[in-house]
Hints:
about 375 residues; alpha+beta; 2-enoyl-CoA Hydratase, Chain A, domain 1; Pdz3 Domain; 2 domains; six-stranded mixed beta sheet; five-stranded antiparallel beta sheet
Amino acid sequence: MKQAKGFSLWGVIVIMIITSVVSGITTGVIMLNSNAVNSKNETLNDEALQEFIGVYQMLLSKYYDNIDKEGMLNAAEEGMLNFLGDKYTTYLDNDEYKGIIDDLSGIYNGIGVTILGNVIQKVTDNSPASKAGLWAGDVIVKINGISVEGMASSQIGSLIKDDKTKEVTLEIERNGENKTFNLEKEDLVNPAIDYNIVEGTNIGYLAIEKFSENLGSQVKEALNYLENNGITSLIIDVRDDSGGYLTAAEDVASFFLEKGKTIYSLQSSSSMMTYSDKTDEKRTYPIIVLINGNSASASEILAAALKESYNATLLGNKSYGKGKVQQIAKLSNGSSVKYTSAKWLTPNGTCIDGIGIMPDYEVNITDESIDEQLNEAVKILSEG
């Protein structure tokens, strides 16, 4: 199956929310397939479908030239998706589907380095790279004997991660001397957060980069560290966070909200379901959430839940405005259909799709060298 025209993979990644029904790939497929089976007889008796089948049979038997049946049916399915006029409903080929799921799994198979160009920027503690003695600042020259000169970071990362063997050989340059390291790759946690205590204050800072499957455990660890070191307020940064798993947004919101408080609601064609905090865990200290125009989907769910059910303050710029939820159905040929199954509503019942969420304090970045939004949040909490 080919991807619907005019809709890039980048767009899928930026705006996608995968609901809990697909949080386990196999479970999601089974549930979606069972739903399809339950309505199979009704669908087959649909008059419009019978007319479509009639046209299909007529073309196969009477068209003057040979027909690519699979290609024609692919075009028909693509036409159905395009007819809906929903930019979030589209095809994913198997590689695109796997790429999205792998990206949001929170786990990757690698050596534990962050690179910019061909320079190692960071080495993860207790990773194969740190155990082997790689350092930040090392320049990667070759990977498995292949020169990486002129390659982008993503290409170099692919050489490391996509190699079929368990081992990877890196030749690096350090202080004018070339060194060779043989490393065995491991499954490592892909960090989805960054956190610290703002220097000279009791204000915690927690940046969420993506709503991956294991985000909850990472945030829990961060909160334990920050609170054990005496924070009295918190800044949560979801700027430029394009979302991810809906359940991850639930997990994070539940750390803060009082039991019974609404996180969000889902409105489908046939029902409305409200999802509330079911945990005994909660916080009461002041929170400011930083948002901007690239804060989308799961980021907006968390921001809205904290604003309306926790009384957090939002600061920055209006968010992206994605108020729809997608599910993914696997097809027999390995491709998938990603389709919108519901709208999500804020605790107050607002749909922000195409609208976004306005911050309580609108602060623009006027100097790229200064984080004016973060500075303003620190100022407000310090004066609080």
